[in-house]
Amino acid sequence: MSKRFDRREFLTQSVAAGTAAWTLGRAQRAAARSPSDKLNLAIVGAGGRGASNWQAVQSENIVALCDVDTKSAAAAFERFPQAARYADFRKLFDAEKSLDGVVISTPDHVHALVAAMALDRGLHVYCEKPLTHTVHEARYLQQKAAAAKVSTQMGNQGHGMSGARQSVEILRSGVLGDVTEVHSWTDRPIWPQGIARPAESQPVPAHLNWDLWLGPAPARPYHECYAPFRWRGWWDFGTGALGDMACHVFDMAYWALDLELPTTVEAESSPVNDETAPSWSVIRYQFPARGPAPPVRFTWYDGKRKPPVELAPGVASLADNGTLIIGSLGTMLVVDPYGVEVKLLPEDRFQGYQPPAPTLPRTEEHHLEWLMACKGGPPTQSHFGYSGRLTEAMLLGNVALRLGRGIEYDAGAGKVKDCPEADRLLRAEYRVGYSLA
Fold it and tell me: Hey, is 221 helix, strand or coil?
């Protein structure tokens, strides 16, 4: 079986009453809202990836734009001239009282702080992947979103695609038998990693508020090696190739197999330093059994590393991004980073195979799924309850990388066993003026 699916689909998180009266009122208004009614949205991070996100939600009322870089955000300012403009998200939330929701597209190190502030105000939240910068932040947002009872969605857009959901249904049908092994890989990073901090500084561009760009991160001089895009490889701001792509490539198998949190994580890589992620890594997660389903060994590869092609019977070479899911009855090869193009191997064994009837809802588009949920529609699929857990599991790989040793994880406590030095890698210390609370 080999088939490609291009459409996206729909699922959304339900809107219910919050504990505070004003949150209750917001949820009741959402439940009564017609799908044609427009939401009042703020865009935090309006340039870069934010441009794709605001284009996807521009059917609503964009009432506020926030970006620390006026050059990057210029297209958004031109498209929404009526929207209030901010450089500091904290001032935006203090000033804007009519908001229904916020779309977050900042660098990773700011995600959780903006999302937490929005949730505190009873707002619906769409946040780019990875959901958070640290394991602690992922756990924190899961709890806060559950208490706020609003609609949330992480921006791993493949999760909403029809083909990805059919892939989940195929895998859950048992066609592969007992799945015990998964391999996911990416060609990232496509930015510098494995490098040291530059010795020199550079003048801050006039269009950039560097202090606000740093936000909660420790202060350092400006250099073009950080912004606007190459921040992904720097530990203070990004989460490396793993954080950039695992929320896409990792996602379908993680979802279909109902994985929770790993018990152990081991990592090997090119040299690791305290400034940037390595130029390549291989990370091995051990996930426990789920009821009758056996434990799963999940291996991640980046920096153009890949699993042995022999694990894919009859396949001559592996694509730049993909996943192999290995079961007792066969193998699924995902040859697309979003999980929407699959082959069942060996192909002769699955000749004439017909996918099962749909069990997951379908939607047109990932952002639309969130918008409809904000208006009282069905719940989202990549809500913070799911995407927070996925992010937590994924980011434990970076903890093992930076420690340079395998770890055992106590999922209940959210701590690495017998390793107090891991605590500094599970959470961040924020600069004065920034906090999750």
Answer: coil
